[in-house]
UniProtKB/TrEMBL annotation:
CTP binds at D285, K295, F332, K346, K350. GO terms for cellular component: phosphopantothenoylcysteine decarboxylase complex. Pfam families: DFP (PF04127), Flavoprotein (PF02441). Binds 1 FMN per subunit. Its EC number is 4.1.1.36, 6.3.2.5. This is Coenzyme A biosynthesis bifunctional protein CoaBC.
Length: 409
């Protein structure tokens, strides 16, 4: 993979993983990139500017101005020069400052002026990483379009073991190169301009009585990430969402529903005009035949009780059977194993063009997690296995694949 001629601003913050930045620079340069380092004051405690400037053959930028002659370092011109900004390692403090816009060093002013896509590779101790403050900061950055290279699991400098270890330089360089490759293939902003898209997301709640329901653990994250990414690419998006605590993605028309029957009705209102439909909702397969009046009393039943359940409509299969010419439909298959054949049977049964398979046995994949590990299974041809990524990155992979293989004609 090549980064020929690409200008990369590499931000380095105060983390022990800064020692890996030297290898990262070597790799980026070997792939053809020009690298300009911007380092925070505490980053310099971990790796010397001399090492970095020798590797990049450019003076390292750290201060707002040169102490020797007072010349001004322009973060604005770096923002214009760059094809991409990569902050690796990104400390918890820098992530927090990126969220709130605290511009107290050259790296942060450069970030705030950046015109190019921004990538971060977090690196910190496991407790810092899983702290709600850090997680919420990462989520906010993802929602603002920052790409997050998920940290790995393993031995940490603190002596502890867990998630927080900066991803290896080879993987980071590869992710960046893949980004440029996808961009070159036309997966850019506005590549879905004017296209109408339907996305289902979240669980459904099937009422038992006034206060109880049958539901599942789906958070809606995957569907919301797909909706946000489609909107970013210029599509007109109808997101039909079951109960989810997530906010409406920017620029997306959201219809909130509760049950599978309501979800089907909401989809049918808009599906005819949609070129693309992605069914990522975790729809309950059954609903109680009758909803009890008010709240059922504990005393009204004996030691056991039975609920009579009836099958819910299959939204994907219903719309798949009514599919119009040129419509592309994508289903999700959450299985207990990576069973390609079962996913293919499901694809045929539901009239889907592509299935996104994920296994509940894969760590970090499936319901409720911010990450997912999927395999894209077309009707014909080889499945594409993707690595564990944030759901926002998975959404990009799915849409890049659809743009390249299904949506061009
Ligand atoms: O059959 P299974 O539930 O595994 O199929 C999963 C796919 O079908 C997902 O794309 C899901 O959104 C969709 N589905 C649906 N309506 C249902 C059940 C599943 O749209 N009632």
């Amino acid at each position: 993979m090549s980064l020929q001629g690409k200008h990369i601003v590499l931000g380095i913050t105060g983390s022990i993983a800064a020692y890996k930045s030297a290898t990262l620079i070597r790799l980026l340069i070997k792939m053809g990139a020009e690298v300009q380092v911007v380092i925070t004051p505490s980053g310099k405690e971990f790796i010397t500017p001399l090492t970095l400037s020798t590797l990049t053959q450019k003076p390292v930028v750290s201060e707002f101005f040169d102490r020797r002659d007072g010349s001004w370092h322009s973060h604005v011109s770096l923002g214009l020069w760059a094809d991409l900004m990569l902050i690796a390692p990104a400390s918890a403090a820098t992530l927090a400052k990126m969220v709130t816009g605290v511009a107290d060093n050259m790296l942060l002013t450069t970030y705030l002026s950046m015109k190019a896509p921004v990538w971060v590779a977090p690196a910190m101790d496991l407790d810092m990483y899983r702290h709600p403050a850090t997680q919420s900061n990462l989520q906010t950055l993802r929602e603002r379009g920052v790409h997050v290279v998920e940290p790995g699991d393993g031995f940490l400098a603190s002596g502890l073991e867990g998630k927080g270890r900066m991803e290896e330089p080879e993987q980071i360089a590869q992710a960046v190169a893949q980004h440029f490759e996808a961009e070159a293939q036309g997966c850019k902003e506005n590549s879905l301009a004017e296209m109408e898209v339907l996305i289902t997301a979240g669980p459904t709640y099937e009422p038992i009585d006034a206060v109880r329901f049958i539901g599942n653990y789906s958070s809606g994250r995957m569907g919301y990430a797909l909706a946000a990414e489609c909107a970013r690419r210029g599509a007109q998006v109808h997101l039909v969402s079951g109960p989810s605590s997530l906010p409406d993605p920017q620029g997306v028309h959201v219809e909130r529903v509760s049950t599978a029957c309501e979800m089907l009705a909401a989809c049918q209102k808009v599906s005819n005009s949609c070129r693309l439909a992605i069914f990522s909702a975790a729809v309950a397969d059954y609903r109680p035949e009758h909803k009890a009046e008010g709240k059922m009393k504990r005393e009204s039943t004996g030691a056991s009780m039975s609920l009579s359940l009836v099958k819910n409509p299959d939204i994907a299969a219903t719309l798949g059977a009514e599919k119009k010419e040129k419509q592309i439909m994508v289903g999700f298959a959450l299985e207990t194993s990576s069973d390609y054949e079962e996913a293919r049977r499901k694809m045929a049964r539901k009239g889907m063009d592509l299935m996104v398979l994920n296994s509940i046995n894969d760590r970090g994949a499936g319901f409720g997690t911010p990450t997912n590990k999927v395999t894209l299974i077309p009707q014909e041809g080889e499945p594409l296995e993707c690595s564990l990524k944030s759901k926002e990155e998975v959404a990009k992979d799915i849409l890049n694949y659809l743009t390249n293989h299904y949506l061009q004609q």
